[in-house]
Amino acid sequence: MVVLSAARWVRSRLSDRFWRVQEVLKYARHFRGRKNRCYALAVRSVRRAFVRSTKARREKKRFLRALWITRIEAASLEHGLKYPAFVSNLLKSQVELNRKVLADLAIYEPKTFKSLAALAQRRRQEGFLAALGDGKEPEGIFSRIVHHH
Amino acid sequence: RYVRQLQRLQLLFSPTAADARGAREFVEEAAQDFARQHPDVVLYVSPHSGPGPAPMLRAEYLNGTVRDELIASKTSEEILQLATKLANQSGLDIIRIRKPFHTDNPSVQGQWHPLTNKPSILTVQGPRLQPQ
């Protein structure tokens, strides 16, 4: 009977307040200070934490790319090449590896990275010869790669 | 070949409680068909008489995880859907996977350390070099 239960429902009191509070506090347990214990402070902190985590997903991509670039730069400097020279010459030799893979190779496969650095160095030299040498010497080997687009 | 990760399903309910009505209907109608369709899952039906805990569906997996699901005030179809969902799961924890890949041998050529690209004279310890 809807009529009776409407009056009862209006007068009823909350019985699962504990679990509603715990739903929020479980995300605040690792916070510092009173915001990990007190609900009123925790609600605000948890909401800000969620907003920051959604915004940070865009920053994470930028951060990781910068990290990979730092690592590739360090590894290529060990082999005597600077990062812009390394990457541009790899692209000109049609080796389209992204920075994530290059950074992983530099860490876990150092010999492969050394050969990639040698390839980039050779392509660089051929580029200089093509630009400055002009003529008598034959064109380089790695510069003659056909680019299919 | 596919090995079903669900080992057994235990249906714990009370034959008199009001919220176990869906569980009773499930046992009467759909439990046998479910057991026939999933021959590698063992279905235990254990009614406990008198007032007891809430009706539960307990799923145990081959890796040892036990998953309890409340079936209080659920219809027979919902319990069937729940049972098929549990039967198709594996027993791994349902948490966020940090990386979609994993290797036990990440490095084939040997992981980089500060002395990989240095001349080997720094690392090799041979007989004492004679001054030339």
How does this model look, in words?
Chain B: It comes from Mohoua ochrocephala. The complex is a heterodimer of chains A (149) and B (132). The mean pLDDT of chain A is 92. The radius of gyration of chain A is 30 Å and the shape is rod-shaped. The longest helix of chain A is centred in the middle third of the chain and has 40 residues, at 39-78. Chain A has helices at 2-11, 17-25, 39-78, 83-92, 99-108, 110-133. Chain A is built from six helices and no strands. The termini of chain A are far apart. With 132 residues, chain B is α+β, with helices and mostly antiparallel strands. Chain B has a domain at 6-88: Glutaredoxin (3-Layer(aba) Sandwich), CATH 3.40.30.10. Chain B has three helices and four strands. In chain B, a hairpin with a 4-residue loop joins strand 3 and strand 4 (66-70). Chain B is rod-shaped. The N and C termini of chain B lie far apart (68 Å). Chain A binds chain B through residues 75, 78-79, 106-112, 114, and chain B through 106-112, 116-117.
Helical fraction of chain B equals 10-25%
Please, what is the CATH homologous superfamily of the domain at 6-88 in chain B? Glutaredoxin
Q: Low-confidence segments of chain A, ≥5 residues, pLDDT <50?
A: none
Strand residue content of chain B: 15-25%
Distance between the termini of chain B: 68 Å
Uncertain regions of chain B: pLDDT < 50 for 5+ in a row? none
The strand count of chain A comes to 0
The share of residues in helices of chain A is: 55-70%
Query: Mean pLDDT score of chain B, rounded?
Result: 90
Largest interface: A-B, 11 and 9 residues
- Summarize model confidence as the mean pLDDT of chain A: 92
Superfamily at the CATH H level of the largest domain in chain A? Answer: Ribosomal protein L20, C-terminal domain
CATH class membership of the largest domain in chain A: Mainly Alpha
Protein name (chain B): Large ribosomal subunit protein mL43
Subcellular location (chain B): Mitochondrion
Domain Ribosomal protein/NADH dehydrogenase (chain B): 15-90
Family (chain B): Belongs to the mitochondrion-specific ribosomal protein mL43 family.
